[in-house]
Amino acid sequence: MVTGNSKELFESAKQFIPGGVNSPVRAFKAVGGDPLFINAAEGAYLYDVDDNRYIELINSWGPMILGHANELIEKAVIEAVKNSLSFGAPTAKEGEIAELIVNMVPSVEKVRMVNSGTEATMSAIRVARGYTGKDKIIKIEGCYHGHGDSFLIAAGSGAVTMGTPDSPGVTKGTAKDTLLAPFNRLESIKELIESNPSEIAAIILEPVPGNMGCVLPEPGYLSGLRQICDEENIVLIFDEVMTGFRLAKGGAQELFNVIPDITTLGKIIGGGMPVGAYGGKSEIMDYVSPQGPVYQAGTLSGNPVAMAAGYTMLEYLNENPGIYTQLEEITSFIVQGIQQNLKKLNLSYTINHLGSMFSLFFTEKEVIDFDTAKTSDTKKFGEYFRRMLNQGVYLAPSQFETLFISTAITKELAEAIIQANYEVLNSMH
Ligand SMILES: Cc1ncc(COP(=O)(O)O)c(C=O)c1O
Ligand SMILES: N[C@H](C=O)CCC(=O)O
């Protein structure tokens, strides 16, 4: 594979950008080799600056659920751009997208738009604290909620990939208000509540984590959290930045029928533009300024171009719920194909899968939380990643990320992915 142009651009970028990238995991540091610089993408394909073509299994870390360069979204963006890029004043589209989100996501009665998932989660815990008058939060180990200080403790995604799940720069004062529990362990949550009586404002988690790789909640875990929060006057926050509009049109909360108090959203909600949102019960959201005293603002919040893209995406998903069955079927087909490959090759690595999210973990252990995810052989994953790239399949460059399937993945492409997986695993063992 020729990658000279990417190499050159990376060397140049490193002079002016820390590590040459604007988000750490993109640097390929954990998998070796230099990152590919991307020129264009269409449907299921990504094209780099050396004209190599790849089948896309990241989809901009989730947002591109309909594949790249979707005509409807492109058209909506072009129309919006004609009226100026930003007003910093209310628009009709903001009301329309808010109403659509309220109709689609079961927990959301009112919603505030922001510019990223990070802003959404930072704002959500501030409201939870303002509403309850309590300071501490419980965070689940291995979940990633963006780069807000309160969350860079036992954080998944790029943070664990770079070997910095507890980031320097987070003050001890902030860190002491973030308590940690393993995923899927209600007992541990109960112990934290007992040892911090009347101090916990919120429990925040990814209901189906994708940032330690894809991990599934065990039966009763999410409903158990709901019950504990009700009993203890704790705000339950589902971070559905990844799972929102992906696992179902109402997200993981619809799928598992567990309704949180606050939901954070991102990725798909912007159709590829930088958007986030947090919403929930009116009683809680009415604490947000200017209705209430909890301050949160944004110069570009509700940006008209981003709202046009997001609205078009959500409207399409709302009107075409069959997409979720289609995504589940094609993802199951790929997962089963990989499972058969593993069997043929006498390998017993673990695959976790739900809807259009899946991860192949290079461990023989069942992966149910951060500790078991970390038993994966990351060196082996790096080799797998590089060889898959050579086969023309673009994976997330970290063991601690889920893959995302888009509707652009056809049966033929799914077969090509399974074949590439077989050849690569065979060549490695
Ligand atoms: C579950 C989850 N929450 C929050 C975030 C932060 O979103 P953003 O990167 O848009 O700030 C991400 C992804 O980065 C995420 O996957
Ligand atoms: N896992 C992260 C978000 O979901 C990946 C995005 C990033 O860190 O660049």
UniProtKB/TrEMBL annotation:
Enzyme Commission number(s): 5.4.3.8
Known cofactor(s): pyridoxal 5'-phosphate
Modified-residue entries (N6-(pyridoxal phosphate)lysine), positions: 267
Pathway membership: Porphyrin-containing compound metabolism; protoporphyrin-IX biosynthesis; 5-aminolevulinate from L-glutamyl-tRNA(Glu): step 2/2
Main location: cytoplasm
Protein keywords: Cytoplasm, Isomerase, Porphyrin biosynthesis, Pyridoxal phosphate
Family: Belongs to the class-III pyridoxal-phosphate-dependent aminotransferase family. HemL subfamily.
Record-given protein name: Glutamate-1-semialdehyde 2,1-aminomutase
Natural source organism: Splendidivirga corallicola
Gene label: hemL
